[in-house]
Amino acid sequence: MAPLGATVLHGAVANVLVAVATALGFTAGGLDPAGSLLAGFATGAVGFAFLGVGLLASEFFSTSRGPTASRRPS
After folding, report:
1. pTM of the predicted structure, to 2 decimals
2. How far is 53 from 30, CA to CA, in rounded Å?
């Protein structure tokens, strides 16, 4: 459970930092602040969606090779 918790924490912090950086960068570039916040929020939301899919996949596969383990090289 500890690795899963660490992944959630790391992913959440990274997503929030990227979302804030996106919003600040767009605002610093002279774009509308409301639109910049929306773009930052959307970036963070997509990041959290990818985090969720990754966490869900990690519950089904015991190793990173799990999805391709049944393939045999030609």
Report:
1. 0.77
2. 34
